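the two lines:
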Amino acid sequence: MTDTEVPTGGRSGKPAKPAAAGPRSAVGTRAPLDLRPSPGAASRWDMLRAQTLIELKLTLRRGESVLLTLVIPVGLLLFFSAVDVLPTDGARSVDFLVPGILALAVMSTAFTGQAIATGFERSYGVLRRFGASPLPRSVLLAGKTLAVVAVEIIQVAVLVAVGFALGWHPHGRPWWVALLLLVATVAFCGLGLLMAGILRAEATLAAANGVYLLLLLVGGVIVPLSELPGWLEAVGRALPTAAASDGLRAVLRDGAGLPVGDLVVLCAWAAGSLALAARTFRWE
Amino acid sequence: MADDLALEVSSLVKTYWPRSDRAIHAVNDLSLTVVAGSVTALLGPNGAGKTTTIEICEGFRRPDAGHVRVLGLDPARDGPALHPRVGVMLQSGGVYPGARAGEMLALLAAHHRDPLDVTALLERVGIAEMAGVPYRRLSGGQQQRLSLAMALVGRPELVFLDEPTAGMDVQARRATWELIEQLRMAGVTVVLTTHAMDEAEQLADHVVIVDHGKVLAAGSPAELTSGGAKGELRFRALAGLDIDRLELALPSGTVAREGPPGRYVIQGKVDPQMLAAVTAWCAGNGVMAEDLQVEQRSLEDVFVELTGSALRA
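prediction for all of em together
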């Protein structure tokens, strides 16, 4: 600790006290602190606000999570719209790219970021510690969800702005886009919690990044599914990332109505992953 | 259950990996009670079952058998009612790795209706200057002090402190002892675990010595150190005093002997009567007793007697 020796004859002419007199406790007793019991839980709303804010702050503070959720998606969007290497079905590349990158953005926050953060919180005993606080688990999870949604709003705003700057022309109904993003968020959150609830934190870190990369390649984000070999395309189509990017593309690029097939796939992933996560998740 | 008991544990059993051949009987028929408003120390070596017992009381683990009542409630079932009233200090962790010390304490404060002032509490535990430092960059002792503050911030009636001073420097340890004393004066019930004899002796109204998942002895430090083996009184005086006459003047069962010439040892129950009898006899015989010493057992002596081993610290 930082208590250095007081030089003799220093400070206001008082005789130097021996260190054992306890300068720290002298500081301590100055603070008015009423230790008498006055127990009680805060209101759920106050807890929810506090939890959402800390989750959001911690997410935005982690350099690697900003890299994952903002820098990489924006970088991919800029790079592949400028460099014409993608077989983009003859359409303008930015119109192909923005929906896929939006799906990637949701995946990076709701799945990858959430899985890694939750895995480490579990290994650091944060979730266990909250088990002894008045915070209900539902409020803890609601706070995490709201923080994820808040980060996604930032991501969508940035990506849409960059898209417009690159000459993007969206079509379709914004409500369908919002619905697809929402269901995709639920599905990816479920998968992230499923992974974080089973694996060790270090394993979650590796696996979540590996899955991110894999789904980036076979999820129709930058490479159209139709370019993949037949069997891989079939696998890709069943994955949530492809359903999200495909569905978003159908609405935003092609002006289609609600892509029911993709929505069903996402709903199935959401229901399945959450049900499984609820059974397997261990808080410690 | 009596109203004045903050904690009641009876016949508690917890076995890890019960069906394997390496089953660990962490807690093995352990019973104890804690009077409301007192400071109780669970004293024992590492692996004695202290933390498992505490964690069952905190609701983190379920017992295999036995009965636990915390503030009259069942920690396994009545968590929502208990959590606001009970403060918990874990042995390690429990903090978002990226959170700053002040942020984390403020978050815990936000879970409570009438929390302590975060700044004042950080100051009290001596880490006010660390408020802006991320948890993972705090030293071990500073992390402990944050953890202690997290247990107190909700103004609980009862606090469980698991190894509260482990990893602290001497000064921080003293400050923590002082804080626990202030908790007692404020009417908070404190249950702490420790493997430090001096900590238990200094702080606790009631010491429960635990090893191999069982209670070996329980009582106030004075009770634990006075009972059982005999005490000794030593003094120096002229060589060759009449030992037999001295013994006659002392309570029965007391033995006096001269060790090296001029050094006397009296063995028996050391109490005020015995002390008075010795000094009265000396005065009556014109003997000046010097270096009069009462040799009392320390808690460590008691522990070694009970377990047959020194503390595995």
